[in-house]
Every structure is written in structure tokens, then in C-alpha cells.
Design a protein that fits this description.
It is built from no helices and 24 strands. By secondary structure, it is mainly beta. The protein starts with 6 loop residues before the first strand and ends in a 29-residue tail after the last strand.
Length: 340
């Protein structure tokens, strides 16, 4: 599959008890539900799942304001999960700055007709405003190589053996190397990455597969009993046994031909290992606040985050260190630095 069809239920379209509908162009469907002005401290929004049976991730889109800590209990097919509106985002009213989301169920098995319910409870000035509930199908994702952005490679379309009826090849291209690139559009989670390719016996091609910045290289060195794209030569290899991915991450297959072997690829699979438990808030650690700075010196600079950065004025390698204090989960790590 190349994409996911997320099933979205607008909160205002559900069966409401005590909740009121508030119009807001920021909200999906131009409305959300709220306990403001209802005269009640809690309310429910209930619905019936009408999607296909399968494994889903459940995501609640809501407003996390700064004037209280509301709470919600989300029940999906009898599975009850709770969370607090405790991000304390900017604003004491529903704005684009405090519209956020929370994964209430990382993995849940659903049947058509299963019921779900959101029960919200206000706190101080935060009225447990809910915009929508999303059901994201969780499944393995296949990208056919011929559907990717190709450089150097060409598509061979006369092969019924290949997944999708085609593969990519450097044969008759005039190039000895090529690249196929794509963008991951599945849900955030941990995946195993596997590529399907033809390992023929008339050369030893090579490949590098890069996913979310992590590269793995291998050779077409099985020398299977064929010198063309036939069933006997079609095989696969796991390039990344475990990798954390999120929507928008990029991936690339770079192949290089050798003699009569033209680095043919059929597909790249992303096999779901585990869905991310919940979206992670960005955690920033200022370099100047690390516990151990070694010989680094703190410099003032209005261009730097928090007005400071660290510098090393000698040629000796130094290490800085600190302790991660965020929640357990899958993270992308980014370093801000000056490249002079």
C-alpha cells in the first residue's frame, strides 16, 4: 500500500450528552465540542465505528489550553484509556496555538459496529474541548520501486513476476548507478525495512538504502541461478531491523550495476513492529546548560537559542553530557550548531 485512509469522526457529529457545539473556523469541520456554558462539569460524545475491521491507532484532536487541566476518558471497543490536558499550550481559549492531539490507543483491534466514547471533564477555565477522533489503520506499507522518484533508473514494465507488474533497472539507461526516492506517509512507529530485488548470477551489484537518515549497504551476492529478472532471482533483504519513523521521513534506494547485473529493485516494505505510544513534545536542551561541559566555554550571542551557545577554543576533542528526562518513546535527535 502507498497510503492510509484515516477515518475521522467530527466530535460535533457524535451523540452528545452535556457537551455543546462551538463554531470555530480553526477546528476541523469548523466546529468542536465544549463544556463551556453547559452547566455541567463533564460530558460525553459517543459514536459507532463504521470502518473496516482491522488494527487501528486512535488519535484525539483537542484544545489544550493554559487555564486549567481538563481530563478525558476514551473508551474504544471496551478498552478504556485516560489522559490529561496538561500540555498548557498558549492561550486560554481555543486557538491554532493550542490545538493538539493525543494517541489514546496505540494499537486496538476493531470490528465494524464497535462503539466508542469520549468522556471529558472540565477543570477551572479549561472546558475539555474536543475537535475530532481519528482512527488510523496500522498495517505494513509497500512502496513499489517504479512509483518512486527515479534518477538514473528506468522502469521495466513487462514483468508479471514483479510486485505491481514492474521493477526498476539500470539496464539500457546509459548509467551505472541510480537512485529511487520516496516519502514515508504511514503512522509514526517502529518499523522493519525490507527491499525486494533481483540477485542474478552475472555480476555483483551494490546498494545503499537510506531511511530517515540511517544508511545500510549490501551486495547482490547471493548469485541465484539466473541472469535475468525471473522468479529464481527475486529475493529480499532486511536493511533496517528496527527504525523509528514518522510521516514525512524520506527514504532512498541507491543502486550500482556490475557487469550484467543491473541492480534491479522491485519494492521497499515498511513492516510495522510497534506504533508510537503517543506523539512526543519536542524537548530542547540548551548546550550551555549541560551538566558536563568539559573545556567548552559559554558565549553570549543573540542569534543563539536562549542567547547563548558553547565554543571550543582549543584543538583537543571534548565531550559534553547531560541526562535525558523525557518520557519513554521514539525520538528524532537534532543538533543546532554553527557551521563556519
Amino acid at each position: 500500500m502507498n497510503g492510509f485512509d484515516t477515518i475521522l469522526f467530527e466530535a460535533e457529529d457524535l451523540t452528545l450528552t452535556n457537551y455543546l457545539v462551538e463554531s470555530n473556523i480553526i477546528s476541523s469541520g469548523d466546529a468542536h465540542i465544549s463544556l463551556a456554558g453547559s452547566g455541567f462539569n463533564s460530558g460525553t460524545a459517543a459514536g459507532v465505528f463504521d470502518g473496516e475491521a482491522g488494527i487501528y491507532q486512535v488519535n484525539i484532536v483537542y484544545y489544550d489550553e493554559s487555564d486549567g487541566v481538563a481530563s478525558a476518558e476514551v473508551t474504544v471497543a471496551g478498552d478504556v484509556q485516560n489522559f490529561d490536558f496538561d500540555k498548557n499550550l498558549t492561550g486560554d481559549a481555543p486557538t491554532v496555538d493550542n490545538l493538539t492531539s493525543y494517541v489514546s490507543h496505540s494499537v486496538v483491534e476493531l470490528q465494524t459496529g464497535d462503539t466508542f466514547e469520549i468522556e471529558g471533564e472540565l477543570n477551572v477555565g479549561e472546558f475539555a474541548r474536543i475537535d475530532s477522533i481519528e482512527f488510523v489503520p496500522l498495517q505494513d506499507i509497500r512502496y513499489e520501486a517504479e512509483t518512486l522518484q527515479l534518477t538514473g533508473y528506468q522502469t521495466e514494465v513487462t514483468n508479471s513476476i514483479a510486485s505491481g507488474g514492474a521493477q526498476i533497472s539500470l539496464s539500457n539507461t546509459g548509467f551505472t548507478s541510480g537512485v529511487a526516492t520516496g516519502t514515508f506517509n504511514g503512522p509514526a512507529g517502529t518499523y522493519q525495512v525490507e527491499v525486494g530485488f533481483y540477485d542474478e548470477n552475472d555480476g555483483v551489484s551494490s546498494a545503499t538504502v537510506t531511511v530517515a537518515g540511517q544508511s545500510r549497504s549490501f551486495l547482490f551476492d547471493e548469485d541465484l541461478p539466473a541472469n535475468a529478472a525471473v522468479p529464481e532471482a527475486l529475493t529480499s533483504r532486511v536493511t533496517h531491523s528496527v527504525i523509528g519513523l514518522k510521516p514525512g521521513d524520506t527514504f532512498e534506494i541507491a543502486g550500482e550495476s556490475n557487469f550484467g547485473e543491473f541492480a534491479r529493485f522491485d519494492y521497499i516494505d515498511f513492516n510495522l513492529v510497534e506504533a508510537t505510544l503517543q506523539p512526543q513534545t519536542t524537548l530542547r536542551y540548551e548546550a550551555e546548560e549541560f551538566e558536563q561541559l568539559g573545556s567548552y566555554v559559554v558565549d553570549l550571542n543573540s542569534n543563539s537559542s536562549a542567547g547563548e551557545h558553547i565554543s571550543l577554543y582549543n584543538s583537543n576533542p571534548q565531550t559534553i553530557s547531560d541526562v535525558f528526562d523525557g518520557e519513554t518513546g521514539i525520538y528524532q535527535v537534532k543538533i543546532g550548531y554553527y557551521d563556519e
